[in-house]
Amino acid sequence: MVLDVLAKSETPLKSAQIADIAKMDKKDVDAAIKKLKQAEKIYSPKVCFYSVKK
What does the alpha-carbon distance between residue 43 and residue 13 come to, in Å, rounded to a whole number? Predict the structure, then answer.
């Protein structure tokens, strides 16, 4: 779900923005972001913002 939101976004998003768009709890989004970063599917272009690796 988090990866889909980031893939559809043209700009990097904060975890709170992702939670609002996906209608998820922020804690769940933060956990998903952590796993996606470890899997190297997303990256952080600036502090606290996330985007999909292309």
Answer: 11
